[in-house]
Each structure stands twice: as C-alpha cells, then as structure tokens.
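Subject: Interface between my chains keeps coming out wrong

I've been trying for a while to get a sensible model of this assembly. When I model each chain on its own everything looks fine, but I need the whole thing in one frame so I can look at the contacts. Pasting all components below, labels as-is. Any help appreciated, I'm running out of ideas.
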Amino acid sequence: MTELTATPAASLTWKERARRIDPRYLIAFLITLVLVLAQLRYHIVGGYERLAVALLACTATEALLSWFDRGKVVNLQSAYISGLSLTLLEKPQGAALWPIALGGWLAISSKYVLRYRESHLWNPTNFAIVTLLLVAPEHISVLSHQWGNDLATNLVIWVFGLVIASRVRVLHITLTYVAAFFALNTVRSLMLGQPILPEIAPITGPMYQLFVFFMITDPRTVVRGRRPQMIVAVIIALVEAMIRFASDQAWPLPTAFNAAPPLVALWLVGPVAKWIDLYRAGPRKPVPVPFPEAQATPPLPARGSSPVASGAR
Amino acid sequence: MIAVPFVAAIGLAFRLNSGPIRAPADAANPGFVLHDATKAAGITFVHHRPSFDSKITNVEPHVAALGASVSVTDFDGDGLPDLYFTNSRFGEPNALYRNKGDGTFEDVAASAGVADLNRPGEGVSMGGVWGDFDNDGREDLLVYRYGYLALLKNVDGKRFEDVTQTAGLRRWVNSNGAIWFDYDRDGLLDLYVTAYFRSDIDLWRLTTTRIMHNSFEYADNGGKNLLFHNVGGGKFEDVTDKLGVGSTRWTLAAASADFDEDGWPDLYLANDYGPEELFLNDHGKRFVLVKAGLSSESKSGMSVALGDAFNRGRLDAFVTNISERGYLFQNNNLRLNRLVDAKRFVNVAEGAVADAGWAWGAQFGDLNNDGMNELFVANGFISADSTTSYWYAMSKIAGANGRFFEDAASWPAFGNASLSGYERSRVYLNRGVAGWSDVAERVGATDTYDGRAVAFADLENRGAIDVIVANQNQPATLYRTTPDSANHWVEFHLVGTRSNRSAIGAEVVVESGDLKQRRIVDGGMGFASQNDRRLHFGLGRREWIDRVVIHWPSGTEQVLRHPLIDRLVTVTEPAG
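Reply #2:
Try treating it as a single job with all components included. I did that and got this:
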C-alpha cells in the first residue's frame, strides 16, 4: 500500500489515477448516481424536504457524536451515504418527516452505541430501517417506488454497481449473495410447488439493488476474509429464504419480515457474524490506513480484505 | 452516555407509531352524525363480482375487483334524487331505486329496462352516468362495461330505450369510468369514456394472458380512452384522436371542470399505475396535456373528486391512492388548484387525509353544513380470508421488470387471500388550516365493506347531504346524515337552456361574508359515481348570502343577489 504515495501524481496514467481514487468516493458517487437517476426519471424522493432532513440528520448526528466520542469531527462521507440510502429506502406515511429524522439519528448513533471491540456491528442504514419497521410499522414502509419496473434503469445501476463493487473489492460478496438468492429461492419454490419466476423476480427490484451494492457489502460491517464474507452472504440469503418460506406459509410474522426479508436477514445475521469475527480476532491493534483521506475514521481490523477504511452506511 | 438518547429514539418511534403525542384539537363534536339507513330505506342491492376466462383464475380476485358503482339522478322528474347501482356478474341485475319521498326506495330497474345489462357477449356493468344528451328534459343513462357501451334513452320517465347502435356508441371498451361534459360548449353533452384493460381484450375469451399493466408506476399499455362528440340528432362521433385525449394509461376515473378559468371545461384523469393527467381545453378545438405539477410523482390514482377544499373559490382535486403499513405509502393527493396564479396544482395532503388505506371513491361535501367541505373516502380492496394477505406475494412481483408481470400467468395465485381487506371508511372533518381529522367512527361510519363508489345526495330535500356507497361484491350502504341543526344551507337546481339542459359543467360560487365556495354540477366524479345534480352549500351560522355567481357551460355568467336560504332554489339559465 505504500506505493500510493511514492509515485508523483503528474506521471500517473488516467487508469492509475482512477485506481487511486478512494473507494468511498466511488460508493458515494454510485449512490448519488442512483438517487439522481431515480429522481430525474421516477421522482422517487417524494419531496426534497425528505432528502434534506435525512442528510441533515445523518451528518449532524455524525458530527455531534464523533466530536463527543473522539473529540473531533470525522469525515462525513459515510453519513452522506447513509442519508442518501435512507432517502431511497425508507418511505414514511403521508408527509411525515419524523421517521426520516429518527432514522438518521438511529443509523448514525448505532455506530457509536452498538459496538464491540471498537467496531460497530450493524450496517447503520439497515439497522435504522429494520428497527423502525419493527417498532413503527404504521408509519414506515420500504421503497414504495419501483422505479418504473424498467430494465434499462436496472441495467445502468447494475453496470455501475458491478464496476464499482469490483473496484472496491466486494464484488465477490454481491455475486455470492445473488447466486445464493437464485439457488435458495429456486429450491423454495420447488419445495412449495410454486412457479419459480415470481420467487426470483424480486432480485430485479430497486430494493435489492441497493441491498446488494450498498448494504451487504458495507466494508465496515462485513467480516474479514474473502471466504468468510462469502459464507456470511450465503447465510444471509439462507435466512432470507427461511423468512420467505415462513411468509409463504402465512406464519404470523411482524410486518418487517414480510415486507423486507433481505433487510431483516442482514439485520439478524450481520451483527452476529461481525461479533464472532471480532471475537476471534482478539483485542484490536492499530493498523495503517490505506487511504490518507480515510484517517478521520477508525481504521479497519488488521486482517480486513477490503481496502476501504470507512464505508459505514 | 449516547446510549440513552439512542434508546429514547427507539422508544419515541414506538410511541409515535400509535399516534401523535398531542392529539389534534379536533372534533369532539364534528357537527354531524351518519346513520346506516340502508335497511330502513329498502335498499337491498348486493353487488356481485364477475368471473372471467379460466386462464386468469390465479388473478381473478384482482381483475374482478371492480364494478360496484352508484350514480344519482332524478330519472322520473319528481324532484327527488333516485339511485342507480350496477352489478357485474352475468345474469345479476342492475338496480334503479326510485325515491318514494318518504325515506324509502323501490327498485324499478326491471320495468324501466335498465336492469338486464350483464349478459354474455355484451359484458358486465362497471358503472353508469346520467345526462340529458338530447335535451328533452329527461335524464338518459350511459352504462359503461367490461364490454359494449350502452346508451339508454329515457323515454318518458318510466322506461328506457337502448339507442347505443343508432347513437354510434356500440364500442367494446373495458371501462371503469365515463363522464358527460360539453367540451365544445355547443349545448349538447359529449361523452368521455375511460378504458382500463385494452379494448381488444375480451376477458371471457382470452387469446393471451399478457393483459396486465407493464409497470406499477408508469404503465402505458392500458385501453385507449375515448371522446365522443355529440353531433345532435342522437348521434355521436369519435373525436378522440382529433382532440388528443386518447390516453392509454390505466385510467380509473375522470372529472371535468374549468380548472384554469378560461371558460372551457378541462379533463382531469386519475390513472392506476401511473401519474395523473390534466388535459386543458383549447377552445373546444383540442386538448393539451400539461404537467401542472402532476407528473412529478406516480401513484395509483383510484378516483378524482373535485371540491373547494379551503374555500378559495376554486375547485381542487382529491385523488385517492394506496397505502399499506410496511409495504407501501403512496399517500392520497389533495391538490390545490393554483393553475391561474402558478400554473400548477400543489399537493398539500398530509397526516390523516394522506393515508386512507387502499382508498377508492371519495367525495367532497359539507356534511355538517358549517361552510367547509368534508371528505368521505371508501376503501378496502379485497376482503377474503382475513388471516392471509396477498401483500407479501404482491411485493415479490412489484419490483420486477414490467414484461414479467404484464403476463397475468406470472402472478402468484391469489387463492382466498385478502388484499387490504376489511378496511373501514374514512370521514375527514375539515378543520381548515388545522388539517383534516378522521371522525368516521365518531360519526357512525363503521362499515368495513370493500367500498368503491361514493355519491352524495340530499335524498329527502331536507338540507343534508346523505352518503351512498357501492361496495364490491357486498351490499350497498346508505348513510343518512344529520347535520348540526343550527347551521344554515342552500341548494341550487340548475336548468340549462343555452347550455345542456342538465347544466352539467355549471360552476356555482356562493359568497356569504367570509365564505366563498365553488361547486360544480358533475357529469360523473369520484370513482364510478355521480353526485346529485343539485348543488348543496352549508352556510354555518351565516343567515344570508351576499351573492351567487353561476358560470353556465355556455359561457353565460349569472349573478343572484341575496337568495333565500335553507331551501332548494331552482335557477334557469337566462335565455340571451
């Protein structure tokens, strides 16, 4: 990683320059692209005040709590990503803004409260949305918009998403989850004697696109090591399939389970896997930060496979 | 330390889930009560849903979930509003309830010849609208179906004659709505018919199962709406393309009014799986589709009701949509008409009025006669097995590519599942700037039928707006309203001369002190419904009216000064 500062910038090719971009900016770029595209084409924001409140709640909470916790304000890019994710995924009843404001607070503050060995356990946006779905289902829904059910929009997001996931070195997580989703839901449909297509159709929906590119791959909450990451992705898909199986049987589950199976699966599996990973890693040691810009946020554990130092979303 | 506000936030969300911390200062006394008078009135109508081709059995509960309608007219000219309900199963009759004037009704549909309209090869009824298309002083009936249109001429106030063929209206349209309006102001009522499924589809003899919408938000593969120009002599011509109003969105409801106050009636469409559409009338020569702030969000428009929401002297639009906890908050639209000053509608729906569940028909009306319009909203989609919901299955396909769910065969089987079933009606009390409060249970609207069409009428000419609801696959409901007796009111019965005789499209503005309210004589409004032709205004404690301005469809403006109140006033359009 030290070569990053060894070569004079002027002599770099554009490819090398692109490779040097902090992956966090790529992620921020992708989610901004998703939001702008979806808003321009499908007006998904549902009022710019929601976007403003989400961004304000996330960034203000991050600034406040980091200053309170560490004595300095950290880079707010993660909070920015959380704010956009929240805007995209959480849809409140009526014109209510409190679910957005509370969601922003819960997302960011969970990073400072739900911690183990100085690492947070939940993907912040995932934690906020599922928690709100569980405690306030009368006023929260997930992604009411479907972005036109348009293949072209899906393709744009998938192309950019795959390129960036590859660059951020989390593509294996995305692809493992997708493969597991197809396999497990095919099995489920066969077990239930239901047509396969409706069971695998959800993967083309916008909620899943956000899920596979922004949540399940969150470098700050994934476990260390390529193979464990893939195993966890499969477990998440498995738990999701189990939730769907229960929903198919009309078991009396909380609304969150029926409305957002992948989000609930990650909410259940993610922190357990992360906790086990941290426990096995033992007490934390400081490690070098691969990107100078990332130093404002806590560094990754020593054996982390991703070069991203802060991807909390 | 941070954990305390963190946990508190979760607790706060939990608390807010059960309602606002400080209850709105509404409505301990809404000023009216509703009493279910269905049985006492002798209304025994039960709607029956259709059955279709077995190729779509898996989604039949969804496809067959429409057809309960109600429209109000005085077909026999006795000065009392009568009621027409449609049925939607082969062999099941429509009902025409003649108002006997003593609070009871009798079904005379069979003898009048408007009952037997649900027949194989002809289609099943989805609704009816009344208008005197030949200006002979008797209200005629257009029944729209999943099938052929049917125009029934009122012969003598007792019998109807099917004149569809000679009128040039024998067209197969899978329609859920139609309105009468005079778009070219020639004094003859024209007809706009909305189409839902494509018109080449015969739901009993399907050649393909690719009949569904191709998007949940921007579908444009529905049937083509049709505009028929009344050329006189009892004949109509199709001018859809010439006038530019052939939307192929999945239109569920249409309403007409002169929104931009240029003297020409415009068209407002509520489209399922798509954004609303506003067609502005360019001097009767063509219609221009304008954005007007309506295309900025796509929802599932189920009905459109026009009314003066906040006494601004303009007609605003209330469009119902779908909301379901956890899954979907499309939220209803209460769009304030600001076309004249800002060239757009502004959505101000928030709080209770934004979420009425899976909402269908709605109407504005002053139920307590206080001078402000209330809103009655019928809702609930499919009530079957209350322990099984189709929402989970719906969530699987809703995010998929449109090509997938356009094919009805791709949909998970409905079985006996409910989909937003057993929802109660909403009655929103208008508290002005303080918002709208749902007082349904408090005033007595407690049914949980699958409401579709809502119509308002003063059934006994007593200065109170009664509420009639047609429920899908269930009995109809009549709520008799008892408003605050201390409040005053006035009603106008308009008779056109240069305008169409039904005065459809006439807009009336009542001014009384600080009150200024506009109403329109509708030729169909809400979802599959039509209100009483006579316009009702509550006046509150005001004991006089300063003036009444009537904007007749012909362009004539008539001013009445200080008309008497607490009575029905008949006004005939000035001749010249």
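Reply #3:
Confirming on my end. Chain B has a mean pLDDT of 95.
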